[in-house]
Design a protein that fits this description.
single chain, about 240 residues, 5 helices, 9 strands
């Protein structure tokens, strides 16, 4: 059963969502011009080795929108079976299993469409899955990760909606996992800071997506950013900042 799941994971997602494919290295740049369509050509470089959850990653394949331009999941990535997934940890924070929750992005969100999508107030509410769906998937994901019933946590989008993550649909949970811990949690703050840095032109959308998917506890630093009071700035250009 798990072998069949693995096979489904590695097949191209022809339904329209861009699926993150894991590799052995990642580049995180401070460029504000890199787009999803040219990510496969990005030069790679190692990140600091602080993770115990998985090796560094990069996007090595991108599957574009469907022929109609509409983002469609196609039901290509079902929830793994009970006990198949294992939580990792980085800096004392939970990390999803890369094999069970590799993450994927929404093709409707690109560098060129950010102003009308993730940088527009209230936009994420228009793509967020309904509670009836998320509650069921949350319970399934908890079983897949062997998390006890009643554990406090939330169904998390590995790549946040505000960073162009795949919202998820029935039968397609590639970007969803049960994140144990308090609600709201520290990952929410990291996602918000990366959104402000992306919408403020400090980093590219792809840089933010790779950083949050790779290891969210260090994503701000991995994206080439630093926090200065209530601002977030480029490490390489400390005077270039936006409000966090």
């Amino acid at each position: 059963m798990y072998a069949r799941y693995e096979s489904a994971r590695t097949r191209p997602n022809t339904g329209g969502y861009r699926v993150l494919v894991l590799a052995a290295a990642v580049v995180v740049t401070a460029s504000a011009t890199t787009s999803c369509t040219n990510l496969a050509a990005t030069t790679t470089a190692p990140l600091p080795s602080t993770t115990t959850a998985a090796p560094p990653m990069t996007l090595t394949a991108v599957v574009g929108p469907s022929s109609t331009g509409a983002p469609q999941s196609g039901g290509a990535f079902p929830m793994p079976p009970s006990g198949a997934c294992h939580l990792g940890s980085v800096a004392g924070q939970p990390m999803p299993d890369e094999h069970c929750s590799p993450g994927s992005t929404n093709p409707a969100v690109t560098q060129d469409t950010m102003d009308e999508t993730i940088c527009k107030a209230g936009w994420t509410a228009t793509v967020r899955p309904p509670v009836a769906f998320t509650d069921a998937i949350k319970a399934q994901s908890a079983r897949a990760y062997s998390i006890s019933a009643g554990t406090v946590g939330e169904l998390d989008h590995k790549i946040a909606l505000e960073l162009g993550g795949d919202p998820g649909k029935a039968g397609d949970v590639v970007n969803l996992w049960f994140e144990p811990g308090p609600i709201p949690n520290p990952k929410d703050t990291v996602e918000r800071i990366l959104n402000h840095a992306t919408c403020g032109g400090l980093i590219s959308l792809v840089t933010a997506q790779i950083a949050i998917a790779h290891r969210w506890p260090t994503a701000i630093e991995d994206a080439g950013l630093t926090q200065v009071g209530h601002r977030v700035c480029l490490q390489a250009a400390p005077t270039r900042c936006v409000q966090r």
